[in-house]
Amino acid sequence: MFERNPELIERLLGNNISTQVTNTTSCLVRLELRLRSQEVYYGASQPRVTESFNITDKLCRKIPWRLSRPQKARQRKRLRAVDTVVSVVDTALARAGLVTKAVERWKAEMPKEAEMVPKDKYTMFDRKEKRYRKGVHST
Fold first, then answer.
1. Residue 132 CB: number of other CB atoms within 10 A?
2. Strand ranges in 11-132 using DSSP code E only, listed in sequence order
3. Which of 35, 52, 109, 120 is the residue whose CA sits 20 to 30 A from 14?
4. 40 CB-side CA count, 13 A
Protein backbone atom coordinates (compact mmCIF):
# COMPACT_ATOMS: atom_id res chain seq x y z
CA MET A 1 0.00 0.00 0.00
CA PHE A 2 2.82 2.45 0.83
CA GLU A 3 4.68 1.88 -2.41
CA ARG A 4 1.49 2.33 -4.45
CA ASN A 5 0.21 5.50 -2.79
CA PRO A 6 3.06 7.73 -1.57
CA GLU A 7 0.89 10.80 -2.21
CA LEU A 8 -1.72 9.47 0.20
CA ILE A 9 0.88 9.00 2.93
CA GLU A 10 2.28 12.49 2.45
CA ARG A 11 -1.20 13.98 2.40
CA LEU A 12 -2.31 12.22 5.59
CA LEU A 13 0.91 12.35 7.57
CA GLY A 14 3.01 15.11 6.10
CA ASN A 15 6.43 14.88 4.45
CA ASN A 16 8.55 14.72 7.61
CA ILE A 17 6.65 11.85 9.25
CA SER A 18 6.29 9.65 6.17
CA THR A 19 10.05 9.44 5.57
CA GLN A 20 10.71 8.47 9.19
CA VAL A 21 7.98 5.87 9.28
CA THR A 22 8.95 4.03 6.11
CA ASN A 23 12.19 2.92 7.78
CA THR A 24 10.46 0.79 10.44
CA THR A 25 8.30 -2.19 9.52
CA SER A 26 6.31 -2.28 12.77
CA CYS A 27 5.29 1.33 12.27
CA LEU A 28 4.33 0.49 8.68
CA VAL A 29 1.89 -2.14 9.84
CA ARG A 30 0.30 0.21 12.37
CA LEU A 31 0.05 3.04 9.87
CA GLU A 32 -1.36 0.75 7.23
CA LEU A 33 -4.13 -0.30 9.61
CA ARG A 34 -4.87 3.34 10.38
CA LEU A 35 -4.76 4.42 6.72
CA ARG A 36 -7.06 1.68 5.49
CA SER A 37 -9.97 3.10 7.43
CA GLN A 38 -9.21 6.63 6.22
CA GLU A 39 -8.62 5.61 2.63
CA VAL A 40 -11.93 3.88 1.96
CA TYR A 41 -14.42 6.09 3.79
CA TYR A 42 -14.84 9.84 3.46
CA GLY A 43 -17.46 12.23 4.78
CA ALA A 44 -20.61 11.20 6.64
CA SER A 45 -20.50 7.59 5.48
CA GLN A 46 -17.44 6.86 7.64
CA PRO A 47 -18.21 4.01 10.09
CA ARG A 48 -17.90 4.53 13.82
CA VAL A 49 -14.84 2.87 15.32
CA THR A 50 -14.64 2.44 19.07
CA GLU A 51 -11.46 3.16 20.99
CA SER A 52 -11.00 -0.46 22.00
CA PHE A 53 -11.01 -1.48 18.33
CA ASN A 54 -8.25 0.91 17.28
CA ILE A 55 -5.05 -1.12 17.60
CA THR A 56 -2.66 1.77 17.13
CA ASP A 57 -3.93 3.94 19.98
CA LYS A 58 -3.06 3.59 23.65
CA LEU A 59 -4.10 0.43 25.43
CA CYS A 60 -6.90 0.65 27.92
CA ARG A 61 -5.22 0.28 31.32
CA LYS A 62 -7.24 -1.54 33.94
CA ILE A 63 -6.66 -0.69 37.58
CA PRO A 64 -6.74 -3.74 39.87
CA TRP A 65 -8.97 -3.59 42.92
CA ARG A 66 -6.15 -4.14 45.38
CA LEU A 67 -2.76 -2.51 45.85
CA SER A 68 0.40 -4.44 45.12
CA ARG A 69 3.23 -4.71 47.64
CA PRO A 70 5.32 -1.92 46.04
CA GLN A 71 2.28 0.36 45.88
CA LYS A 72 1.59 -0.26 49.56
CA ALA A 73 5.23 0.43 50.40
CA ARG A 74 5.13 3.72 48.50
CA GLN A 75 1.90 4.68 50.26
CA ARG A 76 3.43 3.97 53.68
CA LYS A 77 6.47 6.02 52.68
CA ARG A 78 4.22 8.96 51.75
CA LEU A 79 2.39 8.70 55.06
CA ARG A 80 5.69 8.66 56.97
CA ALA A 81 6.82 11.70 54.99
CA VAL A 82 3.69 13.56 56.14
CA ASP A 83 4.46 12.55 59.73
CA THR A 84 8.00 13.90 59.47
CA VAL A 85 6.81 17.19 57.97
CA VAL A 86 4.35 17.68 60.82
CA SER A 87 7.00 16.87 63.43
CA VAL A 88 9.56 19.20 61.79
CA VAL A 89 7.04 22.06 61.68
CA ASP A 90 6.08 21.40 65.29
CA THR A 91 9.69 21.41 66.54
CA ALA A 92 10.50 24.54 64.52
CA LEU A 93 7.52 26.34 65.99
CA ALA A 94 8.41 25.11 69.49
CA ARG A 95 11.97 26.48 69.13
CA ALA A 96 10.55 29.83 68.10
CA GLY A 97 8.16 29.76 71.04
CA LEU A 98 5.07 29.68 68.85
CA VAL A 99 2.06 27.40 68.98
CA THR A 100 -0.22 26.88 65.99
CA LYS A 101 -3.75 25.64 66.46
CA ALA A 102 -3.71 23.70 63.17
CA VAL A 103 -0.59 21.71 64.03
CA GLU A 104 -1.84 20.97 67.54
CA ARG A 105 -5.18 19.80 66.15
CA TRP A 106 -3.40 17.62 63.58
CA LYS A 107 -1.29 15.98 66.28
CA ALA A 108 -4.34 15.39 68.47
CA GLU A 109 -6.70 14.00 65.81
CA MET A 110 -4.55 12.32 63.17
CA PRO A 111 -2.74 9.06 63.93
CA LYS A 112 0.80 8.43 62.74
CA GLU A 113 1.49 5.85 60.06
CA ALA A 114 2.44 3.16 62.57
CA GLU A 115 -0.79 3.70 64.52
CA MET A 116 -3.09 3.57 61.47
CA VAL A 117 -5.31 0.63 60.59
CA PRO A 118 -4.64 -0.81 57.09
CA LYS A 119 -8.17 0.16 56.04
CA ASP A 120 -7.29 3.80 56.67
CA LYS A 121 -3.85 3.55 55.08
CA TYR A 122 -4.91 2.14 51.74
CA THR A 123 -8.50 3.35 51.29
CA MET A 124 -10.33 6.65 51.50
CA PHE A 125 -13.92 7.70 52.02
CA ASP A 126 -16.08 8.17 48.94
CA ARG A 127 -19.82 8.68 49.30
CA LYS A 128 -20.45 7.48 45.74
CA GLU A 129 -18.90 4.05 46.29
CA LYS A 130 -20.94 1.03 47.27
CA ARG A 131 -19.30 0.54 50.66
CA TYR A 132 -18.22 4.20 51.00
CA ARG A 133 -14.53 3.35 50.52
CA LYS A 134 -12.27 3.36 47.49
CA GLY A 135 -8.60 2.53 47.07
CA VAL A 136 -6.07 5.33 47.18
CA HIS A 137 -4.69 4.15 43.81
CA SER A 138 -8.01 4.60 41.97
CA THR A 139 -8.46 8.31 42.55
1. 11
2. 123-125
3. 52
4. 8
